[in-house]
Amino acid sequence: MSHQQEQSISPGRRLRQLLATGKTLVCPGVYDGFSARMALAAGFDCLYMTGAGVSMSRIGMADLGLTTQTEMVDTASMIANIDPKIPLIADADTGYGTVANVFRTVERYITAGVAGFHLEDQVVTKKCGHLKGKECVSLSEYLTRIKAAVEARKTRGSDIVIIARTDTLATHGLDEALRRLRAAAEVGADVVFLEAVSTKEQLQRYCDAFRGTGIVTLHNMVQGSAQAYELTPKEAEQYGIGIMLYPAICLLPAYVGITKALRDLKSGLIEKDSETASPAQIFRVCGMNEIQEVDRKVDDWVQKFETDKT
Ligand SMILES: C[C@](O)(C(=O)O)[C@H](CC(=O)O)C(=O)O
């Protein structure tokens, strides 16, 4: 494949190619430029933009449905374009309103360079799927969201991957949750996402329900959550899970590490930590060398230009 052809592959197609391998795609949750840069440097094939992370890092609020469409699109666009070769799956929560809002969210995610997104059936004033007291909309209202997303994809001639999430396992039980996911797939979702799986039996039934259907299953691995069924990527592969999200993989160590550093500073205890990084090191992770290379090339060009003139 030529360089130009390689560049012109859409984000959706890149993600579809990864899913077609049949291997479990492990996606670390990132929420800002710095966490995205670290995940890219670690060599992941796909990133996940966690809505919980965006909510906390961008507006300083817990995952309670407070971020706006604009804040989500803006963050997704920045992350997706750091390295457009690495597809980004973005949280789209409830789509941020009614049918027209969902349609516009999807149009804007497509323009932003997002490869895939998930849309759920909680009420618009949603909360993290692993908290108690969730409420969900009716099946028909949920399907209007999925249909609006499918229409936006069609209107834009896009191949963005639509991931249908249901939160009804907690509110209505497994039968209803599976019914909703099947219905969403019939409307045009490519991937299904059963939120807050808490037992092996639920996981098994979920995976069995979609095995051999061509619909990819996603498992959300919220580390540390009481509701999450813990699973390694290797085990996920055996269940036939296509995508594993790790929404908290950067958030939890950031919380622990930063809190410790701040407490130490506050108590006057600043020891020379052998594990600490240098500013230059973290600038390098964030593209310093590449930008300096551009500077050098432009300088060379200016010098040649000036010489040729005289
Ligand atoms: C996947 C999720 O929607 C997210 O925002 O990352 C959250 C994760 C979390 O709150 O830890 C969810 O599971 O609802």
TrEMBL record:
Family matches, as InterPro entries: ICL/PEPM (IPR039556), Isocitrate_lyase_ph_CS (IPR018523), Pyrv/PenolPyrv_kinase-like_dom (IPR015813), Pyrv_kinase-like_dom_sf (IPR040442)
Catalyzed reactions: (2S,3R)-3-hydroxybutane-1,2,3-tricarboxylate = pyruvate + succinate
Domain of life: Eukaryota
GO molecular function: methylisocitrate lyase activity
Protein name, as recorded: Methylisocitrate lyase
Source species of the chain: Xylaria arbuscula
Taxonomic lineage: Eukaryota, Fungi, Dikarya, Ascomycota, Pezizomycotina
